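Predict the 3D structure for this chain.
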Amino acid sequence: MTDYGKFTATPPPRPIEWEVDDIQESLNELFVYCNCINDEKSKERIISFLRNAYIRKKDAYRLAKSFDDHFNSEGDLDLVNIMENIIDQAIDSLHKSVARWVKKYKFVPEFNVGEVVLYNKFLSKMKGEIYSICEDSAEYVIRDVGSDKKGGYLIPYENVISKA
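Done. Predicted structure below.
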């Protein structure tokens, strides 16, 4: 059996997108709002827009504004509320996908709380101390070395390179 926890073999890729089925209820609200509930091509364009919008990092107002600009529509508070629901459901969907991925491949953390490690963040090698471990998402919480602050950055197991 391959030990994915220590990444001795190339691990399967971490899920990075939400599942359409997981946000279908809010998508249907958006389709009704756009009067395209029976237009498969328009529905596909909307889903493509949402995937490309990287909705995990957007607030509902900005996503609605971007949607208005992209589709030349006149948005209102109803659209903002629909987008807020889509964002919430998409984030939940991604968390569920990651949890299924972790459970399927039985990832085990290679490093322990308190260890100082090198890790990749924003294309840079960083050094930090493991503050805690989130086993359900296969991530370490890493903070600056010597910091007494609670919390830190969530860093996926696969982005931690070695002990420092």
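The chain has a mean pLDDT of 90.
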